[in-house]
Design brief:
Length: 388
């Protein structure tokens, strides 16, 4: 029997048409208006600015104390680390702090994972190390271009490609990053002043074994005692000490900050001659706010060498693509590690990372990425800041 259209009720039905399965193609103007209405909707605005979702539902009386403790703890950890990564990248130490502050400001508006902390990392410092040695502040152009590439990835909705990154790859990258970061800290832990030729895994350990004669006992003792104290506070989480002594609960949450404060006080009290300090110190850091300026598209170094835009691109080469790819994989690895099984909006994380670096390039040449160590400290410090 010949199939009858679902529109046919009887033979005299006026709704019978010659081709009731065909659809009229929408006009271009209708498509543009429909897409513009979708982009400009409040739902899309909340999706691209997660702060509009979590801020109205923020429980100030319940969460503010925990977030203040976490903020102080992360700040006291981030300041010396940012200074160290600025020096690692062959820059003045204050550039590390500038990058940290602006990176966190950008992610606070666009980020979607509460535990992720955006800051300079050892990986970004290593990636720009050689370029900074040649261009110095001109490396801000690299940060700008990397930010634009990352934002373009997000605008083109390429976050879907992250779904095809297998779990072993993410775990391998996370493990390699942890080994690299940990190896880079062995030299200052032992008080060895020689920086070596690099900060990768092999170079870090090679530098340590080559300069064992420079090991300082006082620095090593202070570092090891700090680690033992942090481990002690970490293990108390599994016991019921905090129930019988509520004050100990806050001491555990502030453990990282407590270690930093104790180390700072010991360095101050035991140093009678600033020229011969008891422990290796970070040294003087330039005070004041950064000078905000557009990234240079041509640059003249202190020795008078002039670089045009094409010359600067020639120095950066494939790093313009390498940094967005590495930092994207890094932020997704950190986000998945602390998401507790929740689905991560990879496209939004790309946009958040790109905007963070876009803000950074106006005051610092050191790009930022998701920090494994500071994100872990943020998570363990009792943060309650919720993003929906």
């Amino acid at each position: 029997m010949q199939r009858v259209s679902c529109l046919v009720v009887n033979q005299s039905d006026e709704r019978i048409i010659a081709n009731d399965y065909s659809e009229a193609s929408p006009h271009l103007g209708q498509l543009i208006r429909r897409q513009a209405k979708h982009i400009c909707s409040y739902a899309m605005l909340k999706r691209r600015f997660p702060v509009l979702s979590w801020l109205p539902s923020y429980q100030w009386m319940t969460y503010l104390l925990y977030d203040t403790i976490a903020g102080i703890t992360v700040a006291l950890t981030a300041i010396p680390q940012s200074i160290a990564y600025g020096i690692l990248a062959n820059l003045q130490p204050e550039y590390g702090i500038y990058s940290n502050v602006m990176g966190c400001a950008g992610y606070a508006l666009f980020g979607s994972v509460k535990d992720v902390t955006i800051a300079p990392t050892s990986l970004t410092a290593i990636l720009v190390q050689g370029i900074v040695a040649e261009l110095h502040y001109g490396t801000a152009l690299l940060t700008f271009l990397s930010a634009m590439v990352t934002i373009m990835f997000g605008v083109l909705n390429l976050g879907i490609l992250v779904r095809f990154i297998s779990i072993p790859v993410v775990m391998g990258f996370t493990t390699a990053a942890c080994l690299t970061i940990g190896s880079a800290q062995v030299r200052p832990l032992l008080g060895i002043s020689s920086k070596g030729n690099g900060s990768d895994f092999v170079s870090s350990w090679s530098n340590v074994f080559t300069n064992m004669n420079q090991v300082r006992v006082q620095d090593s003792v202070l570092g090891v005692c700090s680690i033992l104290l942090l481990v002690f506070f970490r293990f108390t989480k599994d016991f019921n000490i905090t129930r019988s002594r509520p004050s100990f609960k806050y001491a555990r949450l502030l453990s990282n900050a407590v270690v930093v404060v104790i180390g700072t006080l010991l360095a101050y009290l035991l140093t009678s001659d600033i020229g011969n300090p008891a422990f290796l110190l970070t040294g003087p850091v330039k005070a004041g706010l950064p000078s905000f300026q557009a990234p240079p598209f041509s640059y003249t170094t202190e020795n008078g060498t002039e670089y045009s835009f094409s010359d600067m691109i020639g120095v950066m080469r494939t790093t313009i693509i390498t940094i967005p790819l590495v930092t994207t994989l890094e932020i997704m690895s950190v986000a998945k590690a602390f998401s507790m099984g929740k689905i991560i909006n990879a496209t939004q994380e790309m946009i958040a990372l790109g905007v963070s670096n876009l803000l950074v390039c106006f005051c610092s040449p050191l790009p930022v990425a998701a920090s494994f160590t500071r994100s872990a400290i943020n998570n363990s410090s009792g943060q309650r800041w919720l993003r929906l």
